[in-house]
Amino acid sequence: MEQLMEQEGDNMGLAGVGMMPQHGPAGDGEETDPTQYYENRLKMLDSLRSAGVDPYPHKFEVAISIADYVAKYSSLGAGEHLLTVTESLAGRVMSKRVSSSKLFFYDLYGDGVKVQVMAGASCSEVAETEFYKCHSVVKRGDIVGIIGYPGRSSRGELSIFARNLILLSPCLHMLPNQRTGRCTAVAGKTTRAKAGADCWVPGIGRNTEAYVLKDQETRYRQRYLDLMVNHQVRHIFRTRSRVISFIRRFLDERNFLEVETPMMNLIPGGASAKPFVTHHNELNMDLYMRIAPELHLKQLVVGGLDRVYEIGKQFRNEGFDLTHSPEFTGCEFYMAYADYNDLMELTETILSGMVRELTGGTRIKYHANGADNPPIEIDFTPPYRRIDMMQELKSIAGLDIPSDLSSDEANKYLAATCEKYGIKCSPPQTTARLLDKITGHFLEATCVNPTFIINHPEIMSPLAKWHRTQPGLTERFELFINKHEVCNAYTELNDPLVQRHRFEEQLRSRQSGDDEAMALDEAFCTALEYGLPPTGGWGMGIDRIAMLLTDSQNIKEVLLFPTMKPQLPG
């Protein structure tokens, strides 16, 4: 019977990488209307329960994962069987092929890895009638448990030859049609098969046109379905997880302490952004979802925790687009006795090391101009280019900005510059906002490879320390990659009197209509009065670096459950 199963399987193209699923009389009902399919599946549940079969059993003993199974038996030769070995594994059926009422073939997936299941009536532990009933109810998407022995077909397809199949959790909805091609994983490593679309690794371009489920709305709203049928997607989120793990390991190895600070605050501080507001019923007071953990982390440095970091969610009540989300993940660290020069070197070390670990090199391919155009190459090899903001605005754009940026003259000059070059800046047109837009237009647009824009004016950087040699500027940098900000860091302002003055300036901006200006935080100012050592502070957006490393042009691609507009009824 084993030889018959192999011959039948090979004739159906089971061993080939480019196989096309074929369906016999007990196939998956792909031609059925989705509503009718759902109703039929409900009837199937009733039928099973009437027969005393629980379609949702509490437990199935899994002896080995599919990935470990593939790794363990990868050395088996073509046609080799281990008849005395019994294994039990479980996964989701993603393809079902029927040769006859006595022979069924399945592609079983678990954690992105596939193994073939070959089920013949002669090998089954149940009677032939029961065998057919059991397999006839299994459809694509069902989660099943398999008990059987390992082996390969005569053409070398690694399989488990099923002695028993148990339905563990039926899928009641019709899945999108399965695409040909697959990826093979051995011992946790991904290798590229001929079809290759699933077989993606960080740093190379992705082809979303090869996805089974293409509709973005469905993919983002039903991420479980996206992960289920678009096997490449899981590698995006594994890459994101590896980014976070790398940063955490990098900082831990340098004696940083990971901490947690409040998500809800009395004052929205630490960044210039509009906050989300929530309400505490017991205290009968409004609280603000944090826009940054900065002020709390610096208070810990005041307390003697010289190196601290936090990786977590931040919330900004602003619009969202391809690179912005109102809820995002950031990493911030604070390092006593460091300045922004140290942090630039550290940034180069972090990013070049991360890219090298994830991709094997320091250059990646990224479809910056859309999937229809050739990808660009981004080189993370240090050292990174450095642009002095004010000097470069003068040399590149020919701007002669008045030196007193707090003057009306400077504000009018910058507003006129925006109008001249068609640079949009929504009200209120404060000097800081105008400068930010002008910098984006003239400087950020040139930053494809990692580039530091350094030495921002004090008016743009209320928490950064004044520049030690250039009056009116601060020791701050922003790192841009592919024209988008990825990191922001500075030598921290630790003079409590100057900090209070900066907060008061921000308060005046807020009173003039800038709802993104920072609020005065008395608790933080009091903490500074106890003495903050010379400190460097650094922040990075996890989502944006994940976008670069996964060739994602939409931030929603790297968020498992992105914020979406409500669906209209019907």
Summarize the structure in words.
The protein is α+β, with helices and mostly antiparallel strands and 570 residues long. It is 30% helix and 22% strand. It contains 15 helices and 20 strands. Strand 1 and strand 2 form a beta hairpin. The longest helix has 20 residues, at 233-252. The chain is elongated, with a radius of gyration of 29 Å. The model is unreliable at 8-26 and 179-197 (pLDDT under 50).
Counting helices, strands and paired strands, the structural category is alpha+beta
Q: Into which percent range does the helicity of residues fall?
A: 25-40%
State the end-to-end distance: 52 Å
Per the CATH scheme, the topology name of the domain at 236-384 and 449-557 is BirA Bifunctional Protein, domain 2
- Mean pLDDT equals 89
CATH architecture of the domain at 236-384 and 449-557: 2-Layer Sandwich
Low-confidence stretches: 8-26, 179-197
Give the strand content. Answer: 15-25%
CATH class of the domain at 236-384 and 449-557: Alpha Beta
Region (Disordered): 1-34
InterPro entries: Aa-tRNA-synt_II, aa-tRNA-synth_II, aa-tRNA-synth_II/BPL/LPL, Lys-tRNA-ligase_II, Lys-tRNA-ligase_II_bac/euk, Lys-tRNA-ligase_II_N, Lys-tRNA-synth_II_C, NA-bd_OB-fold
Protein name: Lysine--tRNA ligase
Main location: cytoplasm
How would you describe this structure in keywords?
lysine-tRNA ligase activity, 30% helix, ligase, ATP-binding, alpha+beta, BirA Bifunctional Protein, domain 2, nucleotide-binding, single chain, 570 residues, 20 strands
How are the SSEs placed, and which strands pair?
Layout: H1 2-11, H2 34-50, H3 66-72, E1 87-100, E2 103-110, E3 113-120, H4 128-136, E4 143-152, E5 158-169, E6 184-186, E7 189-191, H5 216-221, H6 223-229, H7 233-252, E8 257-258, E9 264-265, E10 277-280, E11 285-289, H8 294-302, E12 307-315, E13 327-336, H9 340-359, E14 363-366, E15 376-379, E16 385-388, H10 389-397, H11 408-421, H12 431-442, E17 451-454, E18 476-481, E19 484-491, H13 496-511, H14 522-529, E20 535-541, H15 542-549
Parallel strand pairs: 3-5, 8-12, 16-17
Antiparallel strand pairs: 1-2, 1-4, 2-3, 4-5, 6-7, 9-11, 10-11, 12-13, 13-20, 14-15, 17-18, 18-19, 19-20
Helix pairs in contact: 7-15, 11-12, 13-14
Subcellular location: Cytoplasm
Family: Belongs to the class-II aminoacyl-tRNA synthetase family.
InterPro entries: Aa-tRNA-synt_II, aa-tRNA-synth_II, aa-tRNA-synth_II/BPL/LPL, Lys-tRNA-ligase_II, Lys-tRNA-ligase_II_bac/euk, Lys-tRNA-ligase_II_N, Lys-tRNA-synth_II_C, NA-bd_OB-fold
